[in-house]
Amino acid sequence: MPALIDPAERFHGTIIVLAPHMDDEVLACGGTLARIPGKSRIHVVYATDGSRSPAPAVPWRKATPSLPDIRAREALEAMQVLGIPEENVHFLDLPDGRLERHYAELAPALGPLMEALDAAHVLAPFRYDRHPDHLALNRFATAWVQGAGAGAELLEYFVYHRSRLLPRGDIRAYIRPGILLAVDIGPESSAKRAALERYRSQTVRLFTFQARPNLTPAFVDQVCAEPELFLPYSPLAAGAAVLTGPVTWIRVAHRIEPILKEGKDRIVGLIGGGR
User: Fold this and answer.
1) Which CATH entry fits the domain spanning 3-271: 3.30.360.10, 3.20.20.80, 3.30.530.20, 3.40.50.10320?
2) pLDDT digits (tens, 9 = 90+) for 26-56
3) 78-116: pLDDT as tens digits
């Protein structure tokens, strides 16, 4: 069982949440952020411009050019719900879905900001998340706490952790016992839900090419009812050292699941609103 922590006691000093896309921060740790007192010490950084979600699954349909503006506005509204000041919300506007290709731009854009804020805690995506943008941001965060940010604590959060290719259905079930931390969001679940509802581009069928919203009502219900889990980074347990069980298969599933999902999305797009 993960160790239960109280965010009000666990987090001291400046907290930086690194979010690949607008909504990742609320999905993974919205309840935790709501529970932390002193919101002026919380900063949220969105690495990409959010221009590819939602996006047509078929190549001949084009996403709306205003989507980055829509998602940035939604992010500011969601952070307002959680009590985080607008001046603490930062947008890097790197290309959505292509963060790894633009990794050389990530360090000069994000590094100086991280150093200026003098973070005590950095929250970033899990090292075996299946989205490439999430993995690129984890790579940066890990390198930063090993170098310029030495002394800061890195906590990896979970967005894409469910997997139909793993027998237990959730990669968190394969993390070694005694490592994970849990936050019971309890009464803050309503704040998390309210923040997610500000992301209308994700929670409703906003465009005709969508067969369904990216975040279905059932999924929102689930993430607002569950504890939020975090993996404290340790250089002594890098990479797959945190995993137990069928490590080789976990690595294989981690690589092929995004490919399978992309194929499924294209089929859904053709059958649904992709024509």
Assistant:
1) 3.40.50.10320
2) 999 999 999 999 999 999 999 999 999 887 7
3) 999 999 999 999 999 999 999 999 999 999 999 999 999
Cα distances (angstroms) measured from residue 256 to each of 130, 148, 252, 261: 9, 34, 6, 9
What are 163-180's pLDDT values in tens digits? 989 999 999 999 999 999
* Rounded-to-integer distance, Cα 128 and Cα 138, Å: 9
From the CB of residue 32, how many other CB atoms can be counted at a distance below 10 Å? 30
Q: Are 228 and 183 in contact (CB under 8 A)?
A: yes
Distance CA 171, CA 152 (A): 26
Annotated domain spans of the chain = 3-271
- Residues 198-240 have pLDDT tens digits of 999 999 998 877 888 999 999 999 999 999 999 999 999 999 9
